[in-house]
Design brief:
Chain lengths: 800, 482
């Protein structure tokens, strides 16, 4: 038992709560950064001049822009008083003289209106001296174009174990990137006030780092920059690092003009300028025993980092730490490296490398199962970690017994066995469409790998009237963090939810905050809020004890009232106690702090215990694949997921569903296509708008969607026994990919390994079906991309 | 210029100093109504959705959800719109807002005002009715809510389930609901408009004759109906037309007539209006419309617009080619009728002269017995096709007696699959014929590889299409009387 995880009687945490801003959302009253800008008098608009070359030395002549009516100023490198860099690795010039990718912002034009700024940017003359470019990760590997540190996770003797394995499989594959596509694009609004302070409103997941970068660009100390984030219209990792340089541009504009400056990227600018989920190139070799136990895994992971380092190193680290997913792999040698390419600088995205690492092992199991002659669900289950086993990086797998428990519950509740029979029956009766059903697990480590980030602060005020205002360092991007923090505060202070209010996140209230990332923000900020509230509650308990004639240890706070044990006839309102405490000169506000205990990590050796605990879950997905087009359709999804004892069940279910669908988008639909030719547009992103980059819409929503939270799931190491929820459910989507693989397999002969590209778009699935059909024919000649007349009529369907 | 005004949330708001190209969304946001958002600026995400009062078929008003980012605000002169702010306030939520909030239908909230407007449009749809005997139509709720009403709204957070649950649990408007009551009165009429700012001009003529006159004098003018295509050019590619002629509300372009020989569809009827007014009378069109973009787009987009752009990947041409449609082109000197098959002359080039307006589309009767529209795309709702096929075949006594196949996405223009048609006609309607004809069909056109699909896949999809038609069309199907 731990005090951190204990809940009082009848807590506000654990109750269904609607999002604290729901009424504002639905009425359009919720304000976002650029809504504020629209109502700011005298505001200028910033517009970028973007490189049309993938790699080139550039010379920029900004003078023609000044001839455009309404252009106020063009910001260039010469205007930067401090460090001309948008990141923390100092490899991202804010105003570059070398364009590193198509879309790279070179200079920024400030206009009285967006129209003036846009026309000004069009007028700027850029001359390019073209340099050789590397676009694909395969090109980067061939050219040995790498950046940052390569890392290796190793345990046992993988090559000896491989040699001794009864079955060895090998593969090479690529897993695509993913555009965040928050419906709100990047946005900042900077104002220089009368006291020489920069007030930067920014849609950022990491206000402290935004502050830090604005300060170093402007060459001012951090105490002159305040960053506020009201709320974001989605983040998903895309606003962890990417907003910083944009906020700095706005602040620089405010400095040079003395006027407020807004910078909101339009969709095309956002897609072409900012980083995405890392595509990975994976080569692997896996050894299995006769009974299907994994003996060894050797792999090389090459992350496509794009033009600068950004968060590529920790993303790669997390990928390497999730190569095992839920499985015990006794002998491991997995090497990871970061390619440098002339593309957007890839960055954090929900899962942060974990999905790409898990992709590898799930692909291995999905491909091996038919050849091993073991049902894929059984193959996965039998390789689960057992209690007492450790990960390849040396961490004990805490609560490993939850995996088989969740698995069994899910198979039972989803009626898996019966439906598997139905799927087989459907497939036997239908030549033109096949169904597949699959189950996959998730084990995801919670905490920042970089131990220092696992801290948080909060500031809680109790006013004399008993109302409470809380501030914390986390940001709200839709995940419901603020709602959970209100529930934590109400629980800690024994109040009703509506008695607590939350003020926007800003760096002058809570300093030195960590990014709202790694799923950890409720754990960290919740710990800090609870700590602050408990300081105040303890002081108020002393006051109340005197008023109630009881020992302070016997004072209870519940439902907005304060009572003493055994004396429930006499109760004080929280406000009465607050008022009394004020009169007695007792401090009614507190700064809270939290650090996650027990973490350690050696990045050079890739060994340690970087995670406080693991989040577990499993999903069953059933799909139907159209044999004519390859189009897959998700018919039904069942999920059992472990969020510990939930802080807020409806919000957690929302995160699980949203994460799953986003994962299905990544694995089946969302496709980043770059011009890889040697033509004039080499390096250009071809899918740079909502009409060409397709995210899941209502038509991709599972027809049936059942999500259950794993019960009695207290996590001792986190606030009120809860677990993180933001990222892990995304990886439940592997069940959809494996279900598609199963459906494709049903077009071919039994026992055949199905190779499936990613994302599994209709066309990709169609080619896999063609290969399966070809294998089912007498000659068995596999075709890839047949010519225009071959394979028109499904082989299995010719008897119609 | 203050005689130019829009009624927003019940209040008349003059359009002051507005540029001819300014979208309704930008204008609303400048006016302090920042609930609607720009998520994509091309009518794909629906974060900008608002409600527009449009005429229904019974002389009343429908609350029609449209993309505010695509409509020039000048086109709304004299019209009435309602935004999320106008539906309710945080202290007094509209039933749609309350249901969505309570269901957990908003996470980040950015797309939410748009969802609210699309849902409200469906909430107020006067012919929405609970499913009979508790068995809803596919993609309809038990309350009659058509999920396609939300096909043009993207949410990146929720995964949609709670939004669907909210939509499916909506009741009917209460008796005292003002917007429901508004439906019983006529919609605002078109207001002739001549807005000139900064050298650009937006004209809404009162009649077709007037429109043709203006066009005759200024053939470089841009004709705009629903603005679902032009709006994208304005927003994403900086198009700033000097002269726009709005033709979407011309009565002469908004007729729908059926006689013994022809179905005539006014070129400026929206796809949603055509769908409602035709019912299932032309099955190929009934199949086409739900696959055309999204409801938000269909509430503005017109047949005339889709044909006017001459795009090779428009969704209506393959269907209309299969139907053997003809176009009525009107000019000051009169009307002429052209075969749609002859209309497309090159990439975005057509037979239409600069002084002509597409007045109507004529579909000859009787219709073929077997017809289908296949759209191959990554996403089922609201995507652009990589390949689209329209089929119309007549089979008599087991023999194909006529065949028309329209193709999109496989050449610089939409085209008829003439060689395939020849390979089908006169042959028995069986698998052997289909296989032979499929080989011909797969070789039609000259598809390219791009970000949507490879050329190989496109060709294979052509061949597959005929097989799929054969497998899915009822063998006994014969002529369907119109």
């Amino acid at each position: 038992m731990s005090a951190l995880a204990d809940r009082p009687a009848d807590p506000v945490v654990g109750r269904r709560a609607v999002h604290e801003s729901a009424a504002l959302h639905v009425t359009g009253a919720a304000m976002y950064t650029d809504d504020l800008a629209a109502q700011t008098a005298g505001v200028l608009t910033a517009w970028p001049v973007q490189s049309t070359e993938a790699h080139a030395r550039v010379r920029v002549d900004v003078s023609p822009a000044y001839e455009v009516a309404g252009v106020v100023r063009v910001l260039t490198a010469a205007d930067v008083p401090g460090l001309n860099d948008a990141g923390v690795k100092h490899d991202e010039p804010l105003f570059p003289d070398e364009a590193m990718y198509t879309g790279h912002a070179l200079v920024w034009v400030l206009g009285e209106t967006a129209e003036a700024a846009r026309l000004g940017a069009e007028a700027v003359r850029v001359s390019y001296e073209r340099l050789p470019s590397i676009i694909t990760v395969v090109e980067a590997i061939a050219a040995e174009s790498y950046q940052g540190s390569a890392r290796t996770v190793a345990r046992g003797d993988a090559s000896a174990a491989m040699a001794g394995s009864a079955h060895v499989f090998e593969g090479v594959c690529e897993v695509g990137g993913q555009e965040h596509f928050s419906i709100e694009t990047q946005a900042s609004l900077a104002i220089l006030d009368s006291e020489g302070q920069y007030f930067v409103q920014c849609s950022t997941q990491h206000p402290s780092e935004t502050q830090e970068i604005v300060a170093h660009v402007l060459d001012v100390p951090s105490n002159r920059v305040t960053v506020q984030c009201l709320r974001m219209g989605g983040g998903f990792g895309g606003k962890e690092m990417q907003p910083h340089g944009l906020a700095a541009v706005a602040a620089l504009g405010a400095k040079l003009t003395g006027r407020p400056v807004r910078l909101r990227l339009n969709r095309t600018q956002d897609i072409t300028m900012t980083g995405k989920r890392h595509p990975f190139h994976l080569t692997w070799k896996a050894g299995f025993s006769d009974d299907g136990l994994i003996q060894a895994l050797e792999a090389t992971l090459t992350a496509d980092g794009g033009w600068s380092l950004d968060l590529s190193e920790p993303v790669l680290g997390r990928a390497l730490c999730h190569i095992d997913n839920a499985y015990w792999i006794p002998n491991v040698h997995v090497h990871g490296r970061i390619a440098k390419t002339n593309k957007t600088s890839q960055t954090a995205f929900r899962g942060f490398g974990g999905p790409q690492g898990m992709f590898l092992i799930e692909d291995v199991l999905g491909r091996a199962a038919p050849v091993l002659g073991i049902d894929p669900a059984e193959l996965r289950r039998k390789n689960f970690y057992r209690p007492g086993q450790r990960t390849p990086y040396g961490q004990l797998v805490k609560d490993a017994e939850r995996l088989p428990t969740i698995w069994a519950q899910l198979l039972d509740e989803s009626d898996f066995e019966r439906r598997r029979g139905e799927v087989a029956g459907f497939n036997a009766a239908n030549a033109d469409a096949k169904r597949g059903i699959a189950v996959t697990p998730v084990k995801f480590g919670i905490s920042f790998n970089f131990s220092a980030f696992n801290q948080a602060g909060a500031l809680v005020h109790v006013y004399k009237d008993g109302s409470v205002l809380i501030n914390h360092g986390g940001t709200e991007m839709g995940q419901g963090l603020h709602t959970k923090m209100l529930q934590v505060a109400a629980t800690a202070l024994g109040l009703r939810l509506e008695q607590v209010r939350l003020a926007p996140t800003r760096t002058d209230k809570v300093p030195n905050t960590s990014a709202t990332a790694a799923s950890s923000s409720a754990d960290l900020n919740g710990g800090a809020v609870k700590n602050a509230c408990e300081q105040i509650r303890d002081r108020m308990a002393t006051v109340a004890g005197r008023l109630l004639g009881a020992d302070e240890r016997d004072v209870r706070f519940e439902g907005g009232f304060v009572t003493a044990l055994g004396r429930f006839d006499e109760r004080l309102s929280f406000a009465e106690v607050a008022e009394a405490a004020y009169l007695q000169r007792v401090q009614l506000w507190a700064a809270g702090f939290y650090r996650t205990e027990g973490l350690h990590w050696n990045p050079d050796q890739m060994q340690g215990s970087p995670f406080k605990y693991f989040a577990y879950g499993a999903a069953v997905t059933e799909v139907e694949v159209d044999g004519f087009t390859g189009a897959p359709r998700v018919r039904r999804v069942d999920i059992v997921h472990d969020v510990g004892d939930s802080l807020s069940p409806m919000l957690d279910v929302g995160q699980i569903e949203g994460g799953y669908v986003q994962g299905v988008g990544w694995l089946t639909l969302e496709e980043l296509r770059w011009d890889e030719s040697d033509g004039p547009h080499r390096g250009r992103l071809l899918t740079q708008s909502a009409s060409t980059y397709k995210l899941p819409s209502f038509s991709e929503m599972p027809e049936e969607f059942h999500v259950r939270l794993f019960e009695n799931a207290r996590e001792d190491g986190a606030v009120y026994g809860s677990k993180a929820v933001g990222e892990p459910p995304l990886m439940l989507a592997f069940s959809a990919r494996e279900a598609i693989r199963a459906a494709v397999g049903a077009f071919g002969p039994v026992g055949r390994s199905v190779v499936l590209g990613s994302p599994a778009t209709p066309e990709t699935v169609f080619w896999a079906i063609e290969a399966a059909r070809a294998a089912a024919t007498v000659d068995g000649a596999a075709r890839q991309k047949p010519d225009h007349t071959a394979g028109l009529v499904p082989a299995a369907a010719t008897e119609g | 210029m203050d005689d130019i005004a829009v009624t927003v949330n019940g209040r008349r708001q003059p359009l002051l100093a507005v540029a001819a190209h300014t979208s309704a969304l930008d204008w609303l946001r400048e006016a302090g109504l920042s609930g609607g958002k720009e998520g994509c600026a091309e009518g794909e995400c629906g974060a900008c959705a608002m409600l527009l009062a449009t005429p229904d078929e019974r002389g009343g008003t429908a609350w029609t959800a449209v993309n505010a980012c695509l409509v020039p605000v000048a086109a709304l002169n004299g019209q009435e719109i309602v935004t999320a702010e106008g539906l309710g306030s945080p202290d007094a939520l509209h039933p749609v807002q309350e249901t969505l909030a309570e269901a957990g239908g908003s996470q980040c909230g950015y797309c939410t005002p748009g969802f609210v407007c699309s849902m409200a449009g469906e909430y107020y749809r006067s012919d929405r009715a609970p499913a009979a005997a508790g068995t809803p139509l596919p993609e309809h709720g038990p309350n009659g809510f058509d999920l396609h009403a939300l096909s043009g709204n993207l949410c990146r957070c929720t995964g949609y389930r709670p939004i669907r649950d909210a939509a499916y649990s909506l009741g009917s408007p209460p008796a005292d609901d003002e917007l429901a009551a508004r439906r019983t009165r006529p919609a605002p009429v078109a207001v002739p408009t001549d807005l000139r700012t900064g050298g650009a001009r937006f004209i809404r003529p009162a009649t077709l004759v007037e429109a043709l006159g203006v066009l005759g004098d200024a053939p470089e003018a841009l004709l705009v109906a629903g603005s679902t295509d032009v709006g994208v050019e304005v927003n994403l590619r900086g198009l700033r037309p000097q002269l726009v002629i709005a033709i979407d509300q011309l009565d002469e372009l908004r007729t729908l007539a059926v006689d013994d020989d022809v179905v005539e569809i006014g070129a400026a009827l929206t796809l949603s209006e055509v769908e409602r007014r035709l019912g299932g009378r032309v099955p190929l069109i009934a199949q086409l419309v739900p696959q055309f973009a999204s409801r938000l787009i269909r509430n503005r987009a017109t047949f005339g617009g889709n044909l006017g752009t001459g795009s090779p990947i428009g969704d209506t041409p393959p269907a209309l080619l299969a139907l053997g449609a003809r176009l009525v082109l009107a000019s000051s000197t009169g009307e002429r009728e052209v075969e749609l098959a002859d209309y497309f002359t090159g990439y975005r080039q057509t037979l239409r002269r600069p002084d002509e307006i597409i007045r109507a589309v004529r579909v000859p009767l009787p219709l073929a017995g077997i017809s289908a529209f296949h759209k191959i795309a990554k996403r089922r709702f609201d995507d652009i096709s990589s390949v689209a096929l329209g089929f119309a075949l007549d089979v008599d006594d087991g023999v194909v007696i006529s065949a028309r196949i329209g193709l999109g996405g496989v050449a610089a223009t939409p085209l008829r699959a003439l060689a395939t048609e020849a390979a089908l006609v006169g042959r028995p309607w069986n698998l052997e014929t289909v296989r032979d004809a499929s080989k011909v069909l797969a070789a039609e056109g000259t598809p390219i590889s791009d970000h949507r699909a490879s050329s190989e896949y496109r060709s294979l999809m052509l061949g597959m299409g005929l097989v799929k038609l054969y497998r899915t069309a009822p063998a006994e199907s014969r002529e369907v009387p119109a």
